[in-house]
Design goal:
about 350 residues; mainly beta; Phage tail protein beta-alpha-beta fold; Elongation Factor Tu (Ef-tu), domain 3; 3 domains; 13-stranded mixed β-sheet; 3-stranded mixed β-sheet; 4 helices; 21 strands; about 15% helix; disordered C terminus
Length: about 350
């Protein structure tokens, strides 16, 4: 492994060759992150500065240093740098002033949101993939990265800022993982199971604490004149009915027919229901070069079959996150499959009450 450091203009500055630990956390539909631990030396002090780029040679992503810590005591003399991948540049931009999509291709929306924002240096759009998923929504002065994440999760996409240090460009790419589960016939299959001896430190998490099944969505207007729609499964009764209210007063009817406006409200409600679904995730540690080789037989975003017979568990789950762990000259990978309980993300405009 070769850890290379660049300045913000993608000029090479030097190598880190004495790291004690390095964690490279890749995420399918959000900005990944990294942590680098190394001794305090004059070379490392000169290289590791906030705003500089960290790239693991051959990686599809690069990180930007966002925090820097120096520690010294009887046991260690250490530099710790942490940051997020280059997609985090989008957290510095807003969707402005208002973006309206009516039954529009999600891929086109994600590209336009980036293209319409204040330009991010060196960033360009990649090739369109022709994905057919569609969405209806509005956003006004929202954080660009948060909405790219929402849209990607809604459509099942991954996205990344792919760096080319020779050309000094950063390309915004939208992609889909490959179905490698045992229940399909088109692609090679990947199974994490006891019988394949490729599982260790296993945990499975399932929660319905946040689950909602019916959403009442409030749009424009006041009191009895306010527009409301109901989305989700409105036929549910009893304990299966879990209701929520969604404030969508920021969704405006300007330029929309009544049907289009109501559909925009329903989409807002559907997004909120997805953010409050039944969550289940499977986390484990596996060897990067075991019987299924990481980045050869499977990669981030792929759908993989997980089997844990003594837990009566079998599921086809998307690989949504994977951490590469480099310590003591060895590499391990720690995958997260499925949809773990998310940080709370509100689709509504908090400035509109």
């Amino acid at each position: 492994m070769e850890i290379r450091i660049y300045d913000a203009e993608m000029n090479f500055k030097g190598l880190i060759e004495n790291q004690t630990s390095f964690l490279w956390n890749r995420k399918y539909d959000a900005a990944g992150s990294f942590e680098l631990y190394c001794p305090v030396t004059q070379n490392n002090l000169a290289l590791l500065q906030i705003g500089r780029l960290v790239w693991k040679k051959g990686a599809k992503e690069a990180g930007v240093i966002e925090s820097f810590t120096l520690e010294q005591n009887d046991y260690k003399n250490q530099i710790t740098v942490k940051g997020r991948f280059l997609e985090s540049y989008m957290s510095r931009r807003l969707i402005r002033p208002r973006y309206n999509a009516s039954n529009k291709l999600v891929e086109s929306v994600m590209r336009e949101l980036l293209e319409n924002a204040v330009a991010i240096p060196l960033v360009q759009l990649g090739a369109e993939q022709g994905f057919t998923e569609r969405v209806t929504f509005q956003a006004t002065y929202k954080n660009l990265l948060e909405y790219q994440t929402k849209l990607a999760r809604y459509a099942g996409f991954g996205f990344r800022f792919f760096p080319d240090f020779s050309e000094k460009t950063i390309t915004f790419e939208i992609y889909k993982g490959v179905d490698r589960s045992v229940h399909q016939m088109d692609n090679s299959r990947v199974v994490f199971s006891q019988s394949y001896n490729n599982l260790s430190m296993v945990s499975y998490n399932e929660s319905d604490q946040l689950q909602k099944t019916v959403a009442y969505v409030g749009g424009e207007g006041e009191g009895d004149a306010r527009t409301f729609v109901v989305t989700g499964d409105d036929t549910l009764v009893g304990l299966e009915r879990r209701e929520m209210y969604v404030n969508a007063s920021d969704v405006r009817s300007d330029g929309l027919t009544t049907a289009q406006y109501q559909e925009a409200l329903r989409q807002r409600g559907n997004h909120s229901l997805e953010e409050n679904a039944l969550f289940n995730s499977f986390e484990c540690t596996t060897e990067a070069a075991g019987n299924f080789i990481y980045q050869k037989h499977y990669d981030l975003g792929d759908i993989i079959t997980v089997q844990k017979n003594n837990w009566n568990l079998e599921a086809d789950l998307r690989l949504t996150e994977i951490t590469e762990i480099y310590e003591t000259g060895a590499m391990k990978v720690s995958p997260v499959l499925g949809n773990p309980i998310p940080e709370t993300i509100d689709w509504s405009d908090t400035n509109n009450g």
